[in-house]
Records
---
Amino acid sequence: MLTVRIEALNLASGDQFLDIGCGEGRHCHAVQMLTQAQAIGVDLDEPSLELARQRAQEVDSNGPLAQFQSADASALPFADGSFDAAICSEVLEHVPDTASLIAEAARVLRPGAIFAVTVPRVWPERICWKLASGPGGYSDQPGGHIRIVDPKTLCKEIEGQGFRFMSSHHAHALHTPYWWLKTAFWSRRDDHPLVRAWHRLLVWDMMEKPALTRVLERLLNPLMGKSVAMYFERL
């Protein structure tokens, strides 16, 4: 499930790509499969990194093997101007210091590099917070969402760190009702029949890619896409 459009990163053979907060490495694996760039993912969750390393070995690759390492996004272990593109997908809603992360991304990207950032869309996210509010709720989970990110404010913050805004789009409209169901039935979010049924639909959609749901999601994304993706150029 890709939130960033890999083709928008303009990756060429031999380019260096960085995924900040890579989790289990889904975007790195896509870069590994679809381009000839070197993908590097960083995260602080070692179990996720280990799974990403295992999957990298299994990917039918067009490019070099994706690499993964533990690193703090606010103090990246790379030299200035090391990367030709970077992404930070569904991360900024989790971290307390977004300014340091953005500054580090600016530091390790060369001029002209693409930086893609994705965050949850505001109004679907607000519904999730309201449906499962209070102690132990949606916004009160270890490592969970600690803020609702306003894209306009975030865009200005990123531009202030030496980037030019290029474009944006929304993604994952079919995932929005799934999260509303999960938060509506928060005490049974993993085993409620409606949640399980919608999850099966999403898995089927991702694996089979039927034309009907692909067209439906494309039409619904501008209205209710769960995530907003923004693309910037490093000045």
---
Amino acid sequence: MPESEDRFADLGPGRPPDGGMEGEADEERRPARSAAERFAELDEREPEPQPPPPPRPSRPAGRYTWVVGIAFVLALIVAGANALRHAGQGDMGILAGKRLPPFAAPLVTSTHNNDVNLQRTRTRGVPSACDVRLSGVVTSCGLTSRPLVLTFVANGGNGCDSQLDRVQRIRREFPSLNFAGVISKTSLADAASLRRRHGWTFPVLLDRDASLFNTYAIGDCPTTVFAHAGGVSAGTRRSELSESQLRRYARALLRFPHRALPL
């Protein structure tokens, strides 16, 4: 190819000034443009189209959302199952087959105006409940040396202390059983006065801050917990029991030492 031949001639001739025809005189008069200049001019007038940006990788949002949704549904199912399984047990007392939580509580006839000791083990110099050896203090381990009927009443102000009157009337018929009462949310002096007025002769314990009530999941006044010797619950009965019911449960507690009572 001759050197004078323009290798970029196919890009077209330049536009003549003022719309005139480009003549030979003008060609001679105007300095010749290089092919590179002509190419740059064409690029300005007709820019080369840019390729579209590459597509962004798609995020597996659908799969991620599906997994999260399934996990959330499973969590709801588990929470619902747990709620159903424990529904109503928050104030049902100690369920049959469960061991009674240990405690050491002052008698209302004592001078120990203290809270109940609920220690399972010795901690920071505080003895475990069943290791307490003080006159005027009763432990759960001592009470459960025999089958136990343990009746909870709240401060005696709403009439449920009459359940302890029924315990008083039938207790002598069952010398092989231990009977005890717990009075909560009252002072030592008021609890002692209540005992004297009613003439209760079985152990009556003070639970002045209701910590024992809470530990034993007591929701109603009165509530009676029945336990086998050794401290395993035979079941809890909420609300009042008649004397005939108390006798029936006391006999069953003696007759079936390892069974839950039909409460």
---
Amino acid sequence: MIIAGEASGDLHGGALAERLRAIAPDRPLVGIGGQRMDAAGVELFERVDNLAVMGFVEVLAHVPKHWALLRTLRERMRSGRVGLLVLIDYPGFNLKLASAAHDAGVPVLYFITPQVWAWGAGRLSKMAEVVTRAAPILRFEEKLLRDHGIDAHFVGHPLLDRAQQLPSREEARTSLGLALDRPVLALFPGSREQEITRHLDDFVATGREMQRRVPGLQVVVSVAATIDIDAARCPFPMGRGASFPVLRAADAAMCKSGTTTLEAAVAGCPLVVAYRTSSWTYWIARRVVKIPHIGLVNVVAGREVAREFVQDALDPHVVSDELQQLLSRTSPRRAEVVNGLAEVRAKLGTPGAAERVARMALEMVQ
């Protein structure tokens, strides 16, 4: 049973299911996921489109649905038909499911473990009780989990598997219909409706300001396949689907915090990190988050490689001051960021995460 609670988890779950199918084609796979897991042959109980939600306050409306789904999965595990539970991120739900699996005698493999280094460190003792093995994707997480009694094995970051054949700058621009001889700024406002609602206007305003400052600048917006953006709110062309072609085409990027910032590191695209959430969620986060940075690229680096503009600091004119330096090929600031991104890339491990997790899972299954 493979459980992913949002689109990114479905992506990793789909890659894992493909490897499991290749190694053990007769092994039945069930779970929660989306298009990728479905295509890989996983029988789905529920789709991630109906589950994904962000924010401390926003999640409250989804609690009844989550509890009903938890009951269904608990009964399935008690039936004796589940030989292994594989959890992918989504800790609020998945840690409850891990407890249910533990009670039912089902081993648990946690792939892409909760970000306990940011907040929720109290979860570590619970994880040690209910998680059989963990497969963290950031190197520093392995030691943290092991120090708290969790059998953890660093498997490398899954995005490296998708980055093994990156397009050239020219190929990426041609595929997006962009001119080869003019600078490009890429905007990544988010992959969820909530993020688009809160980010798009500020991201678009930044793009307009940058076009005013940089003659001939092309602006492209990366849009998740599951998101529709009203053209009246966004005057720029949109690149749908994978992030890497957009990042390879760009001279600089403005990214919401999250995995996109690591994708920028792998693509070698200098960036700024921007994020805005509800005032209540931000108020709570300020009191529970224990790390100085929100951008994953900065978390992995252990310092601020890419400048962060959070909440009221997300001012298009101020963000543009930084982006203008990043767009300049001769800027010392651009060189500094590019060198920092290369350090981050080196810390992400080597390709093959899905293969390693698949073999780990098959070793564990009862």
